[in-house]
Amino acid sequence: MTDIASIKLSNAQIAWRAAQDIEDGAYVNLGIGFPEMVARYQVEGRQAIYHTENGILDFGPAPAEGEEDWDLINAGKKAVTLNPGAAFFHHADSFAMVRGGHLDVAILGAFEVAETGDLANWSVGKGGVPAVGGAMDLVHGAKRVAVITDHVTKTGAPKLVERCSLPLTGVACVTRVYTSLAVVDIEGGRFVLREKLAAISMDELQAVTGATLVLDGPVADLIVPEL
Fold it and tell me: Which residue in the list 53, 112, 115, 195 is annotated as catalytic?
């Protein structure tokens, strides 16, 4: 039996894979924490315009250590830089962009994702962001919602499930999940497997998934660089 912990992708590799599907010119919001890593791996030759709920459009890479301007931060309170032409705006205007359907992609983390596309990604527990925050707006305002996550919890329980047991962020909102073991689309209330690590068998992947994985055509190898 495959030792999943020894073969699974790192967070950086999951973020890299998600970045490959961001189209040139897309307006993108990245969730606080792990999803913020996606911005590091923008595909060469493409230019995404990143949005942050606290009021910046088209922020750039993180500044070098010691060169931070702490008046320039994203929603996760991390220092950012600005690209030429970047814009600042009021928090209310930022959410008008979200709710008005002006974002092409939102990429968020998750505690659970259901085969129906339901998402549970917030908690008031210790160490968590103490509210659902902008995620509830993002999942119903963005044109495409993707999730990046480990395939299982720290205790080995599935994160991809038939129905979420935790409070929902949004209903029927997620269309693709990038995990540490696979890439899964949500179509017609089903998890459709698109890519998986070559080192794990279909039976082993199904055993750590809390709902049926449907095969709807060829399943590609999930290939990422060493990061």
Answer: 53
